Amino acid sequence: MMRICILTSVHTxxxxxxxxxxAKTLAKAGYHVTLIAQHDKDEVVEGINIIxxxxxxxxxxxxxxxxxxxxxxxxxxxxxYHFHDPELLPAGLLLKLLTKKPxxxxxxxxxxxxxxxxxxxxxxxxKPLSRLFNLLGQSAASQLDYIVVATDHIATKFxxxxxxxxxxxxxxxxxNAPGTRGEPGRPTLIYIGVLSEIRGISDIVQAMSYLAxxxxxxxxxxxxxxxxxxxxxxxxxxxxxxxxxRGIVKPEVAGQQLGQATIGIVCFHxxxxxxxxxxxxxxxxxxxxxxxxxxxxxxxxxxxEGNSCGLTVNPLDPAEIAGAIEYLLDHPDEARxxxxxxxxxVQEKYNWDSEGxxxxxxxxxxxxxxx
Length: 371
Fold this sequence. Notes:
The protein is α/β, with parallel strands linked by helices. It has helices spanning 16-28, 59-75, 89-99, 111-115, 123-141, 152-155, 201-208, 230-235, 251-259, 280-287, 298-306, 318-330, 332-348, 352-367; strands at 3-12, 32-38, 43-45, 48-53, 80-83, 103-107, 146-149, 164-166, 188-192, 218-222, 243-247, 263-266, 292-295, 310-313.
């Protein structure tokens, strides 16, 4: 049985892409899978051996802990190593050098683009650091066996190698089944994910203030505020009296929340790391048969309007967001049809079944056909 070791220093053990999609797909296919990730204990879950790493106290502590992760990975004597975070590049290269085994780098985001919006970095250093990071990523890619990317846009960042596989972060259909749609006469919008300024949280909260009280509409926010002080800012905005904060929810609970909502909303700001992203939440809303309101980026517009499953808006304009909400509430039959269209689109093309097959094909190539 081929042994696979998956590493992540940023994500928790039950990350949807890493655990619920990739690790479980590989384990079901007969591979022996070990996952080294942030968790509270070592355990075996659904056939996956989890080696727990402590949750880091800060970013510096996390960077230092990557070397402990390298040591644990090296001890596994795996046949394939698959790591998920750019800060693990040195560890991945060292594993390649010392073990001579195949090493896969999984790139979730356009990291050079993301650096340009990091608030904790001084503005003057962002562009030079972004360029440097891009060069380092290209150099490392040429020395590793495969680069897995989450979008076609990210794939264009690795033109220096032909060993790139695009495995998109589409939802698992059975985890996002349509639900009961909540209380009659009380429409509910929902957002699940990181709650930050550049993800449009202030704008969608303020959009609620434009709705007449007779609408009796509410907004549910599920996730963690970033940075921590941002929560106080959001709670002080107009419209916050129509918002319910439910904190971080587990994947199975998130599915239940979506099933009870009326509209899914994702209004990221037009930042470099957003305009060409394909946020998993958009497809999860569609899978749950929710009409969606999304940012009017060309890529997103093509998905939403191309499948007639919602409306796109200027994410920086709360009044326009509110107008889209009102349109969907005023046209319930059309909104219902949009939800059905979105669900159908996910069933036909935007689902993990197709992407999971690509993952297994990649491992067939990497392993030479043995599992």
